[in-house]
Amino acid sequence: MEITLTNPSAPVLDESAAVKALGALAQAQRLRAFRALVVAGLEGLTPGTMAEQLGVAPSALSFHLKELVYSGLVSSEARGRNLIYRADFAHMTALLSYMTKHCCQGEACAVTTDAGCATC
């Protein structure tokens, strides 16, 4: 399996935005919440469903979701009486692009599941 990490159509993050996003993910519960949203895909999740899946108090989850939204990695949308949270895949891709921009001496880098850079 080969994954290309560069995406020319993804938005470009500056250092400040990258630090904000990485800071949001640098806490275990927020990282778990973000991963749950990535798995949920475009449908997203309600806070209640996420709290149940993650085994976390809804009030604690609310705090973590607020931080993820502030970082740009997550968006929220009101749907009736519920909020739906979704991973912002464009922002996630931009963060990955920022982190790998100079991988393999600035060339596009293909990563395999077996090893690091396949083109280096």
End-to-end Cα distance, whole Å, is: 17 Å
* Quaternary structure classification: single chain
CA gyration radius, whole angstroms: 16 Å
| Most strands sheet | 2 strands, antiparallel
- Can you write the helix and strand succession as a string? EHHHHEEHE
Uncertain stretches of 5 or more adjacent residues? 1-6
Return the structural class. alpha+beta
Provide the CATH superfamily: Winged helix-like DNA-binding domain superfamily/Winged helix DNA-binding domain
Strand percent estimate: 15-25%
User: How many structural domains does the protein architecture include?
Assistant: 1
CATH topology: Arc Repressor Mutant, subunit A
Annotated CATH architecture: Orthogonal Bundle
Main β-sheet, spatial strand arrangement: 1-4
Helix content: 40-55%
With helices defined by DSSP (H or I, 4 residues minimum), what is the helix count?
Answer: 5
Mean pLDDT: 85
Instruction: Please give the CATH class.
Output: Mainly Alpha
Shape: elongated
Q: Can you offer a commentary on this structure?
A:
By secondary structure, the chain is an alpha+beta fold. It has a single domain, classed as Winged helix-like DNA-binding domain superfamily/Winged helix DNA-binding domain (Arc Repressor Mutant, subunit A). It is 48% helix and 15% strand. The protein contains five helices and four strands; from the N terminus they run βααααββαβ. It has helices at 15-25, 28-40, 47-54, 58-71, 89-100, and strands at 2-4, 74-79, 82-87, 110-112. A two-stranded antiparallel ribbon has the order 1-4. The longest helix is centred in the middle third of the chain and has 14 residues, at 58-71. It is elongated. The chain starts with a strand and ends in an 8-residue tail after the last strand.
